[in-house]
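Page 47, continued from p. 46.
Same chain as before, 233 aa.
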Amino acid sequence: MTGSMITIKAHDGGSFGAYLAKPAAGKGPGVVVIQEIFGVNANVRAIADGLAAEGFFALAPDLFWRIEPGIDITDKTEAEWKKAFELFGKFDIAAGVKDIQATLTALRAQPGCTGKAGAVGYCLGGLLAYLTAARTDSNASVGFYGVNIKNFLGEQGAIKAPLLLHVAEKDEFVPPPAQAEVAAGLVANPHVTILTYMGQDHAFARMGGKHFHAGSALAANAASLAFFKKHLA
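Result:
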């Protein structure tokens, strides 16, 4: 871990923690790293550190703070999966997106941040990345295998900044009919790009996960980095 924890003020009072990784140059655009259902764990912190190494300020907010602050679990045990789904079931999506907006504001206020800031999210965070594109002032957003996006297609018209979605063709949580519905619902929006990874299952980019696929993860991460370098320059 090379970053540090900071505190962010919520829109409705209270505050929450976030993991901040800074670029060595001390200057650059920002990216909010939106967690999966396992909290701000080692994987999330590693993603933030990797973005910092590429020249970004990366900030990963603890979005479960309203339920239980400081969640940091893995996908390795049945008990942790049970805990993760319990948290997911209690999570307030609307409040979470407002916390992401607060995180974007805090990120832009970091000394050295250029003022351009985007977001990247995974699983639950993939859905939140989509909603971040629709509901916040993010300059560019990326979602990996977002769940339940089809339930929010009515918001696609609000997306005015670039959005990149990575889709796993064989996603166990997003079956082909749902993928087709999302593609059809977003095809008319010129700001949205969808990349599909054939043969891959949910969380193909989660390092150490059951469905991790090095080739697809490398391709998706490279596309995301190029996307951010283009739109946050």
